[in-house]
Specification:
With 445 residues, this protein is an alpha+beta fold. It is built from nine helices and six strands, in the order ααβααββααβαββαα. A hairpin with a 7-residue loop joins strand 5 (299-307) and strand 6 (315-322). Mean pLDDT is 81; it is low at 1-40.
Amino acid sequence: MKFCGSLIECSVFKRSVAVYSPIRPCFAPFFLGAALCSSGAIALTLVQAEQELLAANSDIALAQAGVESAAANVTVAGQLPNPTLSVQSTQYSPIAGLGAGRPTDKALDTIVGISILIERGDKATLRREAAMEQLSGARHDLRDMRRQQRLALHQAYYDLKLAGEKQSLALETRDLAAQALAAADKRVAAGDLAAVDRYRLSVEALRVANDVTSAESDVRQATLALAVLLGRKREGADAPRSELRTDDLTANDPWPEVAPEAGATDPVSARADVAAAEARVAAASAGRAVARSLRARDVTVGAQVERVPANTAGVTFGVNVSIPLYARYGFEGEIARAEADYTTALLTRQKIVNQAEADTAKARVTLDGARRRLVSFEADIVPAAKKALDAIEFAYARGAAGLTDALDARRTWRATQVDLAAARADHAKALAAWRAATEWESVRP
């Protein structure tokens, strides 16, 4: 973070300001760090933020639950039908009752049977294949959700860092304006400064005070956005004492170095969202096979043991076989729906591929533009604005420039400092978007 001692200085400071100006930038980071420590602020690095994101983000947790559900579906889909046990008794008379004597002398006709459905057409294997592809899609969805949330995290993190720098610049500007106004009061009392110039300095001081209020609001909003993304609970009356306060987070990482020009990238097929679409095409293809296998008639076979008291043999045995007759309906609807699902999966895959290619191209253009803009600010605009400010301040201190020119130069320098911070934030977020489009989550979990 850069601080400039001549931001709001004017000739009313005289020699005391000239001595103070080169020293203040050296101690500004110290005072800022002391202020953060005194308020209990927590410096959060991007590495720490990513760890919190993966552990507590609600969207990632939902995607993980989707993986677990898909894994359970694989277990369900591969199971064969269970056998069925049946017991029935007949020949009971409410008048004669069960009959006298031993249990074997009872008059009940009892049948104990067991049956099982035998699936034909390799249905269980096909169902399992479809479920496995759905599981693969869910895993890729988890990868893609991590990619999206990491990108959102980087954007929120750098928004907070930008808001913090703007707040620091605004606070420094407000302090310098207050010092200039105090010195102007002394000069007005001594008859060395016109009252109208003092009024103009007071207007400038009020303006920068409003800038501080706006900057503080931006910091609070950026902090809340980051805390929500990290899954941190809001502070409340029933919150535990160890709960982290959302308004005490600060972005601690430095701005990333200027990125080199974006070059060629791997095919978009390596992206998680494209891989998920490919898995769902495979799942839909397996679903077509499952639907077609329904035409293979399943057979139910069974065996039974029957005790007939009136029969001299006492116990008889039997078997049964049942086969469905597709006389009215042959699963035409299920097959047509599976075909439609497969077509939808193909179209969805193509749409996602096109979107991934467009995102990658857009990220490359945005990163190159942000990089050129940042280089221009650091190499040309900021040095030129600093030289212009120093020249106006020098002239104003010697009466060769008016207060209007000095105030305009200071506003331009302040706006340049803010624009430089914004350019760094744009570059950092563009770099994060480029990495999200080409690098992150390229390995299957």
